[in-house]
Amino acid sequence: MGNYSATGNVTLTPKPKTGVIAASDPLAYLVEPTVGACAHTSFSLSGITGSSGSPYQLYPGTYCGGISVKGDSWLNFNAGTYVLAGGGMTIKGISSMTGTGVTFYNTTGTGGYGAITLSGNSTVNFSAPTSGSLAGILFFQDRSIPSGAAGSTITGNSSSTFNGAIYFATTAVTFSGNSAVNGYSIVVADSVAINGNSTVGNNYSSLTNGSPIKGTILAE
Question: Measured between alpha carbons, how far is 193 from 186 in angstroms, rounded to an integer?
Fold first, then answer.
């Protein structure tokens, strides 16, 4: 449904079809995480690492007002669900971030809704949980966010990997990243822009129950 466009040295194979029946949301079955009490409010870091030359450690919980990182920061997101209750998540500058078994749930809250913006020459290596109710889900936006809200940008440098679903059912997403060797990426959004040398893999062997996309839609 809708249309498509391509600029620069782009090849689309096979040629996209337009005017087809709109497909239903393939991740509509997912239950949205609970927004708990604020563990942090307007969390912000700039040019920081942890002690003894190790990454600064972040832990799952509800981040009211979102997460903001800038400068030359080195971070590790420990496994679990990060609820961004307002403010979204903004990463700028030359930062390095890792996170295995993580899900970022973006909703409204302190300061109002904010998009996800990963930009700059950052190295980002994130992977979604491999089991549980959010298996395979890396970014998950609240479905009640209106379609006119700001779109999100998920980018990283050539060494970045995003293993998991990037799920923004009502807003736009600009994606420029990679799935790791033998990894996978899924993008589900109201509209999608893919930039640069993006790689979207489809090896779901790391997931206990396979791909989170459980059904197929036939349209003609």
Answer: 13
pLDDT average, residue stretch 179-195: 84
pLDDT of residue 216: 56
- Give the side-chain half-sphere CA count within 13 A for 136: 23
Confidence class of residue 220 from pLDDT cuts 50, 70 and 90?
A: very low
Q: Rounded CA gap, 144 and 48, in Å?
A: 34
The answer to whether the beta carbons of residues 169 and 107 sit under 8 Å apart is no
168 neighbors 188 (Cβ within 8 angstroms): yes
Q: 184 Cβ partners below 8 Å, 6+ apart? A: 136, 163, 164, 200, 201, 202, 203, 204, 211
Domain ranges of the chain: 39-194
CA–CA dist 177, 27 (Å, integer): 21
Separation between Cα atoms, residue 57 and residue 50, nearest integer Å? 7
pTM: 0.90
Q: Give me the count of residues in the chain.
A: 220
pLDDT of 109: 94
Task: Give the other-Cβ count within 10 Å of 216's Cβ.
Answer: 7
Burial of 174 (0-12, 13-18, 19+ CB in 10 A): middle
Cis peptide before 14 (omega within 30 of 0): yes
